[in-house]
Amino acid sequence: MHQGIRNMEDYFKLPIVLRAKELEEELRTGATKPFKKIIKAHSEDCHALGQKPITFLRQVLILVTYPELMKDPRFPEDAKERARVILAGCNNGSIGSYSENSGIETIRRHCAEFIEHRDGIHSDWQNITLSPGTSGGIRNILQLLAWKLNGKDPGVMIPKPSFPLYDACLQELNMHSVPYFLNEKKNWGVDLKELNKSFDDSTSTCTLRAIIVNNPGNPTGHVFTLQNIQEIIKFAYNRSLIILADESQQGNVYDGSRFHSVKRVMIEMGPPYCDIELASFMSVSKGYIGESGVRGGYVEVVNMDPDVYQMYVKSLVCPSSLGQAAVHCLVDAPKEGEASYRGFLMEKNEILLSFKEKAKLCSEIMNSINGITCNPVQGAVYAFPRITMPAKALNAAKYENQLPDVFYTFQLLEKTGICVIPGSTFGQKPGTWYFRTTILPLEEEFGEMLKGFREFHTKFLTMYS
Amino acid sequence: MHQGIRNMEDYFKLPIVLRAKELEEELRTGATKPFKKIIKAHSEDCHALGQKPITFLRQVLILVTYPELMKDPRFPEDAKERARVILAGCNNGSIGSYSENSGIETIRRHCAEFIEHRDGIHSDWQNITLSPGTSGGIRNILQLLAWKLNGKDPGVMIPKPSFPLYDACLQELNMHSVPYFLNEKKNWGVDLKELNKSFDDSTSTCTLRAIIVNNPGNPTGHVFTLQNIQEIIKFAYNRSLIILADESQQGNVYDGSRFHSVKRVMIEMGPPYCDIELASFMSVSKGYIGESGVRGGYVEVVNMDPDVYQMYVKSLVCPSSLGQAAVHCLVDAPKEGEASYRGFLMEKNEILLSFKEKAKLCSEIMNSINGITCNPVQGAVYAFPRITMPAKALNAAKYENQLPDVFYTFQLLEKTGICVIPGSTFGQKPGTWYFRTTILPLEEEFGEMLKGFREFHTKFLTMYS
After folding, report:
1. Which key words tag this protein in UniProt (chains A, B) (predicted)?
2. Residue among A92, A94, A317 minimizing CB distance to B136
3. Which of A132, A143, A162, B345 has an alpha carbon within 20 to 30 A of A450's alpha carbon?
4. Nearest chain A alpha carbon to B294
5. B272 burial level (CB within 10 Å; 0-12, 13-18, 19+)
6. Domains parsed from chain A with CATH numbers
């Protein structure tokens, strides 16, 4: 067996998630439990948790799939116009034909306009490639770096805590994963000292090629400050690292925070920083769109050696045309004056406002509970509360042969039906314990969940103190 | 740079294809040429060449994307029933949610039924995984084998001539590609002697892990006989190779030939052959469906070590749900008595009948031309005619610093606008020259093309003899 794949953690088969599935099945077949349903606060799957699809996007998808519907007056003109633009970019006007490996040109051009509008800085459409989503996009770039340098294995710096798919991808490619810890006390920001230490500690085992940055962040719900981004850029420049910026949740920012794209910041910093190699990833799986199933995203690559970029484009497989069409809807959404504008804005704002309210509510409630502390949820759709575990609970966990955070989340699940992910899945500093909850459950359920959580935690403390 | 990727040939950037694009642009901007348009006989993109999508499939896609259309009486009940089945398999009933890595269970179950019906032999749905198409599927399996064994690099036997994406995939994974030549005199069948020679010659450079079999075949248009398949199975057993069977064109078989799946043949052969490890690949990109853009396919894996199979499933990324829905339409097509049946059958048969007629016409015309010989097109959508090159033409090619087949196909393109791919792209025995044409251009254009080809070849012979 390929050792890298053997080592890969199976994120979808986490014991806590498997147990939640079992419990759901037990409930379905009539078992009596202290709860009536499983609250899937572990899942990042927006639509699975009840988020509604954006009507405009779905209309464009069906119009490109079944062009006869163009004649149907119930579909708005702007959706039809987008469909015509997309189909004009397809070979022979069919969404069923292959696109170029890098994606449909007209969609790539619209991605560049979208980025330009976001940053106020030029974006070259030829630097944009369409991807089957962020994890696929990151894999395609990492693969370019998966070769020995100076006789040593290649390595990549990844944040901790972070989404385990980065690790899985590095394992698959037989690359070293070199963690750098985010600083909880600075709203999960980066510390230059930590970055340097992490780099220096790894030099004997591997040659570092890149640093992965996740902003807004999973599982921590942070949004990096401008200063944070500047520090990362300086560090990457000093250490000759490529920045891989997972910015797929850039549309979800709350709490007065602002999203700063790595691209904009480095260009504004001027030479020598504006010449750093960067790949930034965006997708339609997250945010107000939440279309994980259609598999669509884009990658903007800047400052890559043209020869290497050509190799990169060559190594791509053309992504789903329908996923590409969904990306088009993200980057060319209805504009003021267009037929769908009002309805689109209402749907979008309803989702984003609900995220915002749940984000605020979540950290407020968490911080009001004895023994739980939680940074504000500034972006993305996650909270990462810290649990102060009483000594008796630590002993009980040891007795069960479980890590304390795993013990805690299993207790929570068995007592309340609430499924969250133990912090150790994402990486946490030794001796600290967390869990990740999403803010995706719909409002009513989310309220219930916070209430259930508070009750559980109070009883947990009583039991183990 | 990753050496494997550097070595990958860029199939989409073949000089002949780039030149065809240039010529198309020149025509568009008013240049005078000896032809009015480019005939894209190089392309495998069915819809790009005018093949119509299957209405039933597109209806199912729009119904799952926009369930409100379920109420629309213009869409038939069987399409709605398929859409309901698919959505019932999606988390929370939305095509926008993630599926399991291995695909939506209900679709996997229907794939197994489809295979059972094809072979008359049990197929376990848990052995089926859904893929983003054949090339992605093959890559996922090859990756499992991409590690050194007995201190030697891993290698895979691949047919020559063959589709260059197998080579590209092996290069990407840093695996050795060990060619075995198909026998033109036996309708591009396999020779046991050649298989053994190819295996034995490679043992000093790599450890062979698998053999890729392509049936019906690209670029040769062959369909293997039962005896051929049996020989491959015996060979794979004797040499402990896994068989990777690209059977994605199994639906396109003409000329009285019959498709024999490797799975059926090995099971029917009984022990020890029925225990061979096999992965078979199917997709919706080819055949009467031709939906290359939606990126959907399935893989059936049998006899794989359960531990390795688990790793394989773990390494998958969930493919596009819409691609999966398209696979559902392939494996659960309208049945007799259902509302869409008649219309579906008419569309399907029209496409397949046209393929059949063009297949026959193509080899007939080719063989009637002096200096061209061509095996019957038994399956898939390709002919691979052999050109006997006059000595003067060989000299002219040398003078142009081109391989003779490249010289020939460039001449053909410049004089007639017909774009075909030189045989050297696929691999050919030294000193023999071929080109690949598809039979995808629509009938009228295809007729024109054969006529234009005959005229060109006659002039070519006159000029160089």
Report:
1. Acetylation, Aminotransferase, Cytoplasm, Phosphoprotein, Pyridoxal phosphate, Transferase
2. A317
3. A162
4. A320
5. exposed
6. 3-51+349-464 (3.90.1150.10), 86-331 (3.40.640.10)
Check CB contact under 8 Å for B96 and A290. Answer: yes
pLDDT of A437: 98
Burial of A70: CB neighbours in 10 Å, binned 0-12, 13-18, 19+: middle
Which residue in B131, B209, B144 sits closest to B173, CA to CA?
B144
DSSP A46: T
pLDDT digits (tens, 9 = 90+) for B430-455: 999 999 999 999 999 999 999 999 99
- What is the share, in percent, of chain A residues with pLDDT greater than 70? 97
Nearest CB to A45; choose among B66, B98, B136 = B98
Q: Dig out the tokens for A102 from the structure.
A: 């890098």
Residue spans of chain B under pLDDT 50:
none
**Which ipTM score applies to this complex?**
0.95
Mean pLDDT for chain B? Answer: 95
User: Per-residue b/e over A201-236, b at no fewer than 16 CB within 10 Å?
Assistant: ebeeebbbbbbbbbbbbbbbbbbbbeebbbbbbbbb
**Which residues are CB-neighbours of A143 under 8 A, at least 6 positions away?**
A173, A315, B2, B5, B172
Residue B211 near residue B235, CB atoms below 8 Å: yes
Q: Which of A292, A324, A438 to mutate to test the interface with B (most CBs of B within 10 A)?
A: A292
B22–chain A nearest CA distance, Å? 16
Angle at B321 between CA B316 and CA B325, to 5 degrees: 120
Residue type, B78: D
Q: Copy the structure tokens of residue A368.
A: 């009001």
Residues of A in contact with B320 (CB under 8 A): 132, 293-295, 320, 322-323
